[in-house]
Design goal:
With about 250 residues, this protein is mainly alpha-helical. It contains 16 helices and no strands. The chain has helices at about 5-20, 35-50, 55-65, 70-90, 95-100, 105-115, 120-125, 130-140, 145-150, 155-165, 170-175, 185-190, 195-205, 210-220, 225-235, 240-250. It comes from Amycolatopsis thailandensis. This is PBS lyase.
């Protein structure tokens, strides 16, 4: 299995989420370039979010007249997560943050699953740390790796570091596999202690279902990071160590 297969598989998982179908129905796309799959996924997302844009803009303008506490209640009881996600990128940043921090973590998690982070990046980056951690905890409980992976690139380091505390090793490996911005993997792993990274490898070694995502993760490490943790890679079981070496050779 090549590193290109890993990337395409991850994109198929995310595309299936956008299209509301199963990844198995899209398996025929495995040989398509991952960058092209990502571009297509973003085009589909843009089409969905731009539908009825004029009406959504009017709703966003009207929402300015409603006090934030009341608007938060309306969002949960009337709008629902999908409509909130569509409007989020159209409201004033400070207003969006003020409303978001008043929403229950469970509802905010529902909104996050429907949201296009590219359209609300400024709001996401300013949501209080405790709120983000609570949402991350809820999404991990739901095993919604894709949603967490879409948000990592929009959060500041202190928030990511705190969120890592509620994300277990298996969950972190799954999230890294579907991370939207794979260039962030090396940086995020750099926020981990060596003991935590060792834990990731030990978990992967004990569960063959995690081999593909952990191999994909390793291909996105910088040479500096590989050298830093090479002594940990040497302690892997022979079969996995051989796969790791083959994967790193392909990526170099």
């Amino acid at each position: 299995m090549t590193t290109e297969n890993f990337a395409a598989q991850a994109e198929i998982l995310k595309l299936a989420r956008v299209l509301g179908t199963s990844p198995e129905r899209l398996s025929y796309l495995e040989n398509v370039d991952a960058a092209e799959l990502q571009a297509f996924r973003e085009q589909v997302t843009d089409t969905l979010f731009d539908a009825n844009l004029a009406a959504l803009e009017r709703m966003a303008m009207t929402s300015k007249l409603v006090p934030s506490p009341i608007l938060a209640k309306i969002a949960e009881k009337v709008f629902g997560p999908l409509l909130c996600a569509r409007i989020a990128g159209l409201v004033d940043v400070s207003r969006g943050v003020d409303v978001a921090k008043r929403l229950k973590p469970q509802f905010l998690s529902d909104v996050a699953a429907e949201l296009d982070p590219r359209r609300a990046s400024a709001i996401i980056a300013r949501i209080p740390l405790d709120t983000v951690v609570a949402v991350a905890d809820e999404l991990v409980r739901r095993e919604d790796w894709i949603t967490v992976g879409r948000f990592v690139g929009h959060l500041p380091d202190p928030t990511v570091r705190r969120a890592l505390g509620v994300i277990g090793d298996k969950a972190l490996i799954r999230i890294a596999f579907v991370l939207d911005d794979k260039s962030r993997i090396d940086h995020v792993l750099g926020l981990l202690s060596e003991a935590r990274f060792r834990g990731l490898l030990e978990v992967a070694a004990a569960d063959e279902d995690l081999w593909a995502p952990v191999l994909d993760l390793l291909t996105h490490l910088s040479e500096k990071r590989v050298e830093q943790w090479s002594h940990l890679l040497d302690k892997l079981p022979p079969a996995l160590r051989e796969r790791v070496q083959e994967t790193l050779d392909q990526a170099s």
